[in-house]
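If you are new to this repository, start here. Below is one unmodified record pulled from the training split, so you can see the exact layout before writing a loader.
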Amino acid sequence: MLGTHGRGVFVIDDLEPLRQVLVHGKHGEAELLTASDSGSAAIQYVVAQTSGSRFPGDAEFRGENPPRGAAIYLWLDDEELPHPDEERERQRKAAQRGEKQATEATSEKDSDAEKENGDEEGEDDGETGPGKLSFTISDLDGETLREMEVSVHQGLNRVLWNFSSDPFERPGQEEDSPFSTRSGPEVPPGVYDVELKYGDHQLSTRVEVQIDPRLDVSAEDLTQRFEALQRAGALQETATEAIRRIERTRADVEMVLTKLKRHRQAIEDDEAEADGTEDEEEQETPESKLEKAGEELKKQLDELSERLQGEDGKGIRRDDDTVFPSVRQAYFILAGTWEAPPPVQLNYLDRAEATLAEVLPQLNQVLSDDVSAFREETEALGLRLLPTAEPLAMPDSDSDISEESYR
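And here is the target side for that same chain:
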């Protein structure tokens, strides 16, 4: 802690990594220094909102807290990585550009074919972008809970794990948005293995996640909450895969129908040009039969899609019998508290699970029977559909669900 003897105070949250480097020195290209703020432990504290106005502006002083999460410190001594000092990083990039231009100049003496690979002076060619470090969080049973890649630089690096597990798959948004990072529920208190990989280097340590002592809940409560959220996430991922299969199959059927319609239109145009007249009655052909089957198959897929994710619309609607909204509703209800889920919350999860269990067999039947029949007829005409896939199954669950209870 440093005081300026004026109005400023500087607080460094953790000096231990720097102390280790100063006392023991640096050894090797990649070295693990310490984990988290207190040896190998990190408190999973809850950020509370202050009383009074929600948006006090500058009327209330709020200091900056250390980043929330388990911190893993490591030293990377690799000159190919960016330098944390801006001036030295500019010099490093300038030196790299000079070496590249010298190499290109030497190559041009032998061949003029490499001229297009040259870069203008002062332009960042992107080849010196930040290095990547991958790290994996697992429980003591070896189950992987979180996998991430982070940017690193030369010298001391702090990799922060915010206690979250991997995000669950969902339709639509696949990547992180500029305003939020996708993540799964936070893990319960306990000890977790951390594995870090940089190039050929592999480092490992352990982190103990400790409960916020201010919370009036037990570690068992948080474990039950996490398991319920994981159960909801498994339902969401199964529903997401079902929706994606419907979308892929429907797009493939639409492509076949488009080709058939173009083929039929070309034949009709040729016949009309040859005869000068139009047929009064359309003859049924294998192509026309396949068109009808395709349109019927699209209707079936649309109906299943509506059961899974609902229909587009405005206003407030109840989607108790729609899978994805039911799963999301259950997830948000479970995530809204730190306590162990009471029976009334688990009932929402049970209903979502029962709804998915009712829709999946219908989808599997359409994909195995109707789509397979359409595929055979399509291949007979020289066209191809998506390859077959294994039927979707319900995620593993320890709870017994009676479908009769929700009808």
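Two things worth knowing about this chain: The longest strand covers residues 201-211. Residues 219-275 form the longest helix (57 residues).
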